[in-house]
Amino acid sequence: xxxxxxxxxxxxxxxxxxxxxxxxxxxxxxxxxxxxxxxxxxxxxxxxxxxxxxxxxxxxxxxxxxxxxxxxxxxxxxxxxxxxxxxxxxxxxxxxxxxxxxxxxxxxxxxxxxxxxxxxxxxxxxxxxxxxxxxxxxxxxxxxxxxxxxxxxxxxxxxxxxxxxxxxxxxxxxxxxxxxxxxxxxxxxxxxxxxxxxxxxxxxxxxxxxxxxxxxxxxxxxxxxxxxxxxxxxxxxxxxxxxxxxxxxxxxxxxxxxxxxxxxxxxxxxxxxxxxxxxxxxxxxxxxxxxxxxxxxxxxxxxxxxxxxxxxxxxxxxxxxxxxxxxxxxxxxxxxxxxxxxxxxxxxxxxxxxxxxxxxxxxxxxxxxxxxxxxxxxxxxxxxxxxxxxxxxx
Length: 394
Ligand SMILES: Cc1cc2nc3c(=O)[nH]c(=O)nc-3n(C[C@H](O)[C@H](O)[C@H](O)COP(=O)(O)OP(=O)(O)OC[C@H]3O[C@@H](n4cnc5c(N)ncnc54)[C@H](O)[C@@H]3O)c2cc1C
Fold this sequence. Notes:
Bound molecules: flavin-adenine dinucleotide
Strand content: 25-35%
Radius of gyration: 21 Å
């Protein structure tokens, strides 16, 4: 059964060149990068902090920053906005190296992300839960969001879907694939200096350690009953685990510092882009003339084809076409819902890659807004030049 709601007028509370949905790694990167190109930008976030899963799920290591180059050398491949963040957090003594991955403190990360948003003049709206898109044919006119001010509309020339779950894809009727994956959790202990069992990792803060739970396999990250069940189950498990870990010698004062305020949903809706990047392409070092960024991989990862050791993990190119929908003219997609095939799920949705795709989507959105053209018609060589001028290595 469905209810018809009464028709009512929804006030347009703001208008911008670019509206970005989601303040995770991809959304912040997109917002800052679009604003740096001179665009007037609004960033919508339902929580009261930035960073998405990075800060809200205690997911700390920025994976993908290294990979194996064609010459066989293990090299750094992610620069640009991602590098700016890591440099700043490291200078604050709030970022350590965990294996090869820069691993910042989540509170310091929230602080730094907000600082970039303020400095670039992005209008950030917290507490805005976007729920629909208003369309005119193949263009999005506005995003509708619920917040404490009521139900509101935000208009823009171009939109970025950085919701992680491809929410705008659904509302705009764009082509996507729905995927299930394991839903997990990360958490932190305080006073944990003496806890040294497997799976316990150092953080940038003395005596604070972070841990990781794989979680239940093949889960639907869009089913609200399932999400509530898992959130409650994991919170109980983390508490019980903390009580168990307190029994270790020297751990009497250990405590659960935080359980994730955002459940660890890995993947849900993924764009069927103009071109989806594939795992096989990454292994072949496929070169794209519309490459907008590079990504690496986790050297210890096991793939469906077997375990690849570090020197076999290629640095792979991300084509602009994988951020680009086939139908809607004024939408770009970045973060864990851009166009990649199932085999590339691990590398394509890591924080490093989300920062890279976000930066490109933001700059491209600013260009499409300025030229009033479809996102599929912007000058990609100009986009690449602008990204290079923002420190991105292609
Ligand atoms: C358990 C777990 C462990 C992981 N471990 C690592 C790791 O060690 N290293 C690594 O690099 N990556 C790791 N990842 C992957 C990585 O954290 C995510 O893929 C990455 O954060 C995705 O970034 P994003 O910006 O695309 O989306 P998200 O981080 O999901 O951010 C999306 C943002 O959009 C907001 N939003 C969503 N819908 C709406 C809406 N309708 N209205 C308003 N706001 C909305 C959300 O509140 C959120 O802030 C892990 C993921 C999980 C789940």
